[in-house]
Amino acid sequence: MFDLGTHAGFILASYGIAVVLLAAVVVWILVDHRALKRSLATLEARGVRRRSSRPDGAASGGASAAGTASDGAVSSEVAP
């Protein structure tokens, strides 16, 4: 195969760790995507709509509009 010399263990371990980390990131992204889709479906079922889906294309502009709060949490408040 390849002659990696005396550092073969370190080289192969580095590649192994990189592959495991990349796989973990991909799994994390897929799990997070499914959770966000589920959360969005729940909000839409409760009547909260995305601002981008309004027919006139206008955003409400209010800080209490449905969306994300400053801490990243999803807010279920609907703007008047």
TrEMBL record:
The keyword Transmembrane helix applies. GO terms for biological process: cytochrome complex assembly; heme transport. The chain crosses the membrane at residues 12-31. Residues 47-80 are annotated as: Disordered. It is a single-pass membrane protein. Residues 55-80 have a biased composition (Low complexity). The keyword Cell division does not apply. One of its GO terms (cellular component) is plasma membrane. It comes from the Bacteria. Keywords: Cell inner membrane, Cell membrane, Cytochrome c-type biogenesis, Membrane, Transmembrane, Transmembrane helix, Transport. InterPro entries: Haem_export_protD_CcmD (IPR007078). It is found in: Cell inner membrane. Required for the export of heme to the periplasm for the biogenesis of c-type cytochromes. Belongs to the CcmD/CycX/HelD family. This is Heme exporter protein D. The gene is ccmD.
